[in-house]
């Protein structure tokens, strides 16, 4: 057989077109990292119902928090929010003060808990509810406010002590939707939900947990997640099944084993992206993102009203972007009937924030393409 060389491309051949730079690419543990945990399942023949892997996973999650902390896992973050609101005693029929500037899951969870969302505007600088401002706005509430659900915007955790003060002054229970804040959330003085969805920083596929410094609250959430059982097969109250399986716990344990390295990769990718965009003063990152805390997404603030135009031009250059929270929940048909106050900052954020390509393994070539595309796009947007 004669060996044949592949023909060299003609010098004037056009290069292969580059594929789009994806806006997100989950980081999940590899199969080999799961194997030891799956072997433990084979041995124990225990696949759900608070088995040894789940107990270990919950303990290791608990150990991440400073001060007293207790953890209950659930089948996903959305149902975890609902069960926590129920366990906190938020009276059905009451209003839940919450931002419209969040993922729709927050509002769905509120409605599933029998509450009515009351959409309140966020602080334009932090993108989050301001507890002092909300306290002042309570006078304008459409009715009895049974709970408050601040949201940690894209993984940025608000000042928890300010929310403790809000709770003390108003008597209103507070639950923090910290879905994307697996990394930044390190204290439990306000009950909080962290999502373990594959697209979040520590993913198990589908899952979530509530952390709180209140052991009784966590015990109640667990009871609500397992048919109202507590220590016996007597169903003590109306509940559901929202347990996390041993399979999910295995992924979570492997994810925690790799977390120190994953976190470094997120931080490195974030800092490389920040450096590549230093020449673009109109592209503003979230406070501390990639330095003090990491998350699986990158959301930047652009000049007012330019998000759609920038997104369209980046798309033409093969750069995927996403407006993760759309125009806010209050504009979703599902929540159109829910009352809201003035939402000026929410509208401004929806027109000026954009999710950029980001991943723990974001490549240098991808970062270069994003930076190059931005250089010409921002010139067109603000000449
Ligand atoms: C991801 C997310 C949720 C939902 O979590 P799931 O685990 O996907 O149910 C809720 N709120 C916010 C802000 C989120 O980003």
Structure description:
With 383 residues, the chain is α/β, with parallel strands linked by helices. It has 11 helices and 10 strands. The relative contact order is 0.17. The chain has a 4-stranded mixed sheet with strand order 1-7-6-5, with helices on both faces. Strands 3-2-4 form a 3-stranded parallel sheet, covered by helices on one side. The chain has helices at residues 31-44, 52-62, 77-87, 104-112, 131-137, 160-170, 215-225, 246-276, 307-316, 344-352, 364-381; strands at residues 70-74, 95-99, 116-120, 145-148, 176-177, 192-195, 208-212, 284-285, 298-301, 353-356. Helices cover 37% and strands 10% of the residues. Pyridoxal-5'-phosphate is lined by residues 76-78, 102-103, 105-106, 151, 177, 179-180, 195, 197, 208.
